Amino acid sequence: MKVAVWGAGSIGSGLVRRLATLPSVSEIHWINRSPQAMEGQAIDIQHGLALMPSCHTIERYKQEGQASKALEQADALVLTLGASVKQGGSRADLYPENCKIYLETVCLLVSTFPGVVVVITNPVDLLTRLIYKARPGLRSGCTIGLGTLVETLRLRAALSDHLSPRRRPSDLPAFAVGTHDENFVMVAERSVLAPHMPEEEFKPILKMVKGEVTNAAQRVKESGTPSTLHPIVEGAVHLLDTIATDRRTLLTVSVLDPDDKDGLCCSVPCVIGRDGVIARCAQLVRGVDMSLGKEAMRKVITAAS
Predict the structure, then answer these.
(1) What are 48-67's pLDDT values in tens digits?
(2) Is there a domain that residue 16 lies in?
(3) How many domains is the chain partitioned into structurally?
(4) pTM (2 decimals)?
């Protein structure tokens, strides 16, 4: 698969480095406003391509005037460009600025792009909705936000730490669903995860885990690391590899909710394959209340209009 990555910040750069190691990726087309931000990193990665399983080139394209050429040669596009959360701010605060960036530089080009678009830029659910609306005629499953995939990874990692006997995070059938903010909802059933554990022991663990997942990014930053990177990059890499190999894996990603009156996007477990979201498995989280996150999104949209 040929993948275009738009953006050369910490997420975009980390993603390019990891995509080069995937057997399912043959070419990377890297787009950014400043070519200098890509050049040295691309040269460095290229010096290791002889040891990579499949990737044989990393082409660089200047955002102005060359982005369309990059998309012409790509099977999938990942959007990482835009402002990041400032100290004391929230993802929702980014919507006016990043919405403007997307409307000015991205939406027109992706309107004719036939491949899968993966949105990582925050606020991811709202920008996924924006990109979906910019691609009339394409089915909703072709536009995917990373959504609560990162929260799901953090949830499973935290549960693994607290359950006894300890289990691998990848073996835990737990999901974070809804919106990529503090309003996400955990789907973690004691009868499935820890049937031997009394309910009075399991409830405090869930409460502790919810706090750990909610505050994960802040805890990373307080430790001296500028921003959280690894779960975002690994989540995106896993998603793209699933698309490239048509693996039909169940992942919690943000996609259009066909029943929402405002056409909002939120995360539920989805079957991912070659064409993006093959099936939206909302029945797996039936009865889960995602209204808080959706109402918060509506307020952001109203304030920005």
Answers:
(1) 999 999 999 999 999 999 99
(2) yes
(3) 1
(4) 0.95
